[in-house]
Design a protein that fits this description.
Length: about 240
């Protein structure tokens, strides 16, 4: 009887963080709040949001930080969009700093929840694209994670979970995540500073503005160059280690 009670406590301790996160995601979708995380919905609310920030200069940044962290932990595909609005509402430097903290915190929450719940179980069942990611993490966790953050060719949430499943150290995960998302974070926040003028131009041309209209080819090229530098550094480190 005592053994059974200990087993239930172990299971509860292990799966409670992930279960709470899943319940929270389900509640958001059930309430329809995810529908507001679209570019059109946020642009329509930009005046109200701007007024809210002016009225609450301390509470508004804190609320934005918490909301962003929750969105990342819940794996909502709206990080770039929210980063643009962070730059629009708070300026690209302060807004970028808020996003950097929030994105790192939200990623860490998901990382810890996944590792606590199913790290041992799923680590033995990795396959396909996930197995390739896992192999890269084992060969050089910090460098590989840094490359994936600089060039987000793999979904952000997938990187968080796979890193947890292959037992990347928490310190390595936080450091590589925070460092790797700096360029993209401040680039998208800077785009947010020009959101107002872009919207005015779009209205004058009688057309709707899309997020991809703000992301220029120069920005994409810069991300690719940063990723290439990181890949070359990682390759050089492996060559030196093999020699």
């Amino acid at each position: 009887m005592m053994g059974s009670e200990r087993d239930w406590k172990y299971i509860a301790r292990r799966f409670t963080p992930l279960a709470l996160l899943l319940l929270f995601v389900a509640a958001i979708y059930t309430a329809g709040l995810h529908k507001h995380l679209t570019f059109s919905a946020l642009t329509e609310s930009k005046s109200a949001l701007d007024s809210l920030v002016e009225a609450h200069p301390v509470l508004a940044p804190v609320a934005f930080l918490l909301f962003y962290a929750i969105a990342v932990a819940a794996s909502f595909p709206a990080a770039s969009l929210l980063t643009v609005f962070g730059g629009f509402l708070f300026g690209w430097i302060f807004g970028g700093a808020l996003v950097l903290i929030a994105a790192t915190a939200g990623s860490t929450v998901l990382f810890l929840a996944a590792r606590t719940a199913c790290g041992d179980l799923l680590q033995r069942r990795l396959g396909g694209r996930t197995a390739s990611l896992a192999s890269g993490f084992r060969d050089g966790a910090f460098g590989y994670l840094l490359v994936l953050r600089l060039a987000p060719v793999v979904p952000f949430w997938m990187v968080n979970i796979v890193a947890a499943l292959v037992n990347v150290r928490i310190g390595t995960f936080i450091a590589a995540t925070a460092l790797g998302i700096i360029p993209g974070t401040f680039a998208y926040a800077y785009l947010g500073c020009g959101l107002e003028s872009a919207l005015v131009a779009a209205e004058a041309a009688d057309q709707s503005l899309r997020l991809r209209d703000l992301v220029t080819s120069e920005v994409k090229l810069a991300f690719a160059a940063l990723a290439l530098v990181a890949v070359l550094a990682l390759a050089l480190r492996r060559v030196r280690g093999a020699s």
